[in-house]
Amino acid sequence: MIGKNGKSNSISKSAILLIDSDSNLSKIKTTKRDFHWNKIISFDYDSHKNLNLENIEHETSDEFITQEETNEIQNHLYTFSKWYDVKSIQKYFMVGDLNIGQLLQEQFIDYMIKFLKKFFEFKKIHEKFPNSTFISSGILYEISAIFSSNVQKIDTDEEVNYDFVHDKVRIDLNLGKNKINFSLSSSKYKKIKHFSEKFTQSLFEPKDTPNSRNVLLVELSTEIYQNLLEESTNHNVNLIQFGIRRPAIWSMNTFKIIKNSKCGIITPDSLIDSKLKIKIQEQKNLITNQISDLYKQDEILSKYFSYEGYSFWHTIKPIIQKLFEKRVEEISRNIQTIKTLFQRIKIDTIMISSEIGITEQIVISESKKHGIKLILLQHGIYYDTKEAVGTNLSKGLYPIKSDKFLVWGKISENNLKNIGIIEPTKLKIIGHPKYDSWKPTPINKNSSYVLLTLTGPEHMLIQGHQISNIIKFENHVEQICKAVIAMKKKLIIKIHPSFHVFDFSEMIKKISSDIEVISTGNIEELINSSDVVIATNHTTAILESYLLQKPVICLPIIDYNLGVPTLFGFNSETNISIEKFRMTFEKLISDKNFKNKIIHSQNEFVENYLINHGNSSKKLLEYIETI
Length: 627
What we know:
- By secondary structure, the protein is of the alpha/beta class.
- It has a seven-stranded parallel β-sheet with strand order 12-11-10-15-16-17-18.
- Helix 10 (274-294) runs antiparallel to helix 12.
- The chain is globular, with a radius of gyration of 26 Å.
- The chain starts with 14 loop residues before the first strand and ends with a helix.
């Protein structure tokens, strides 16, 4: 038998090399000589792609699990992500009424989904090859050692790099006609934000207007809520922007929006003085000590983070330690800053668009202490199915702690009543301020195009990490591009602005250099100038296209086992498979009656889904004035 970390002079009948994106593929030939492997299994798309580029034969890890087992992994992810609620260890997370573990749930899920995929896949691989030797490095070695004693570790000089969601910030800039995007480390971004906000705070300090309600807007985009901000000048309401993650002003356009509204701005740094810095340090010390005591509860945590007797706590422990180490300063600063905010100004109502963000969770906690009404705004279209409840809860989309949930229309209201976890009295139909100014405009036929809104595989769902699904996604995008070009139509691809989107630019360039790929820009303008919109996933851009009278072809490429949402279920003629795409696309281009029929059907959907189009800002502000 070959032991952990050891080498053997005798070659076992089966030796399997395990590869992921952290593996050094340049060492494969060396490992072949040293370890005599006769099979390679790749565990993620990047390693699979790199092995293909080198013409190295291999299998993929998701070949070893079924669809049913994939769903099971997702359910276990949600269970493990609530470790902060375990009664025997909950005290180590609590800072007053605030649960530090819950603050980091989103970031915990983002890491754990990739870990659990590998954990469960290797379990199945080990069951199929119980007598094999497994050769690997990094996290794959740690996982394989949980199940097997026949493991060998590939030594590597490379330092483990723990990257978590929100370690980087994406920046989008419009430089004249040129649109660029790049990423900055979170620390660099905060320095720039701090510098720029020194000016905005002094220019737009909130005004204390008698008999007006002070409404705190938490982490809401100035551009998205432009109509609401500008409409506020007609109401007895003082809107106050507060954002730790995002600034209220980041461009000339956002400066003009704030200037033309009654909106004030409170920046986090304006609240921090020497006394608060001491409190922040004390808060940091308290959290650090509590989390240090948490790490000593190995027996409890080993039992909790286990499956069928196989515990992985000691494997993920150093990763969780690194996550808390990276975030403890930020959390401490945010807690004390937000506490000071509530002490400094009178707040009557608070509006948020999610209950999952760190800023939002701390604000929710403080709002409860001060008895302040909290309103959750529906941010976009979501999967309105019973199968998607767990996913939606993990994204903070439901009003679990909010007093009111302002939804877009009857469809959302009925869905939320039917899932049975939300009090119907919390719901109120308002529509969405963003779309008050949205109107279809005539297009220049000489400059029109087909718009493909490319939302890649969903990173918060296990299916979005499966190699087979990403390959399928690539193949479908390639077929869509070729079909559009074959019809001699100009194609623009709008990439979703997220770090988690896969980079398909190389593949698209190979198809045609004439395809324009953009990741920034005004989606309203892009849709308005198009002939047809194509969507590859469940996205708010579909409804936005309906609103602007554009026919939409929906191709839900990946099945996330979330059921059929209303957006996909209402029109079977344009919610299609890839096999029917070319025929449907050609019909939309050439058959005016068919196109008008589709648009008419879409208009009926919009009427039910989005109420108060054109005056939802007014309705929202009138509602705030009454509560």
